[in-house]
Amino acid sequence: MKIYLDGRFVDDADAKVSVFDHGLLYGDGVFEGIRLYGGNVFRLEEHLERFEYSAKAILLTLPLSRKELVDVTCETCRQNGLTDAYIRLVATRGVGDLGLAPWLCAKPSLFCIASKISLYPKEYYDNGLAIVTVPTRRIGPAALPPTIKSLNYLNNILGKIEAKQFGALEAIMLNEQGYVAECTADNVFIVHKGEILTPSASQGALKGVTRSTIFDIAQEIGVPIREVNMTRYDVWCADECFLTGTGAEVIPVVKLDGREIGAGKPGPITQRVLASFRRRVLVEGTRL
Ligand code: PMP
Q: Which of these is catalytic: 2, 149, 193, 265?
């Protein structure tokens, strides 16, 4: 496997960063997870815009321009002969000393990995996921804005561990106020009385690229969509529920904390959204 690392393509065995890299020492860095479908990088410009904003928010100057980021992402896929892949683009603060100070890190490191993707088993797309609410709260925008896709994922990892302890593959994380923020690595949507509803970024949701695709799909299929403050009550009483993410795509949810949602099976609007999403991934994007 060929990895792009700071200006060169190297074998995966040689793709190494320093133990003094602040990405490793402090989680000081940003990343993107991107998909390649049939030779199209799905919504690459949107991912790169979020990558640039994440970097800007932590005052990290990316070493590459937008055009160079496009080239690096596509070339990493080409070098590995991939037409379908999961792409991980990472920028770290770079090598510094053992203190926090990012200004002592001389130059950021940027790498790109393109690899095969492991998906949720197909049965969950057909029958829906059973998820739980975990006790760990999603970190609030005033502490560390969840809109920054940073290398600090410990909050989500604690949620993921708890989900597993409760026997679930994904979990809803509430914010400090008790409103639904998002899942550990996915955004949350419910359908209620013919409307699609989702928490806003100010409640602690990442502005997911898949999430923003759902807004376009809702318009296409003529279903109203809006951002709301969502409680667990709203999920209990929803007609349908689904999650979105680059890895998960659009996945129906049929149970929360052991309670059935709606009819206890993937709902009709979720299925229309999923069908539209599967059409779109093949045509929307940057051709390799
Ligand atoms: N929330 C979190 C915390 C995430 O890490 C992700 C990405 N896996 C998402 C939501 C979904 O965002 P996207 O659709 O851009 O993958």
A: 149
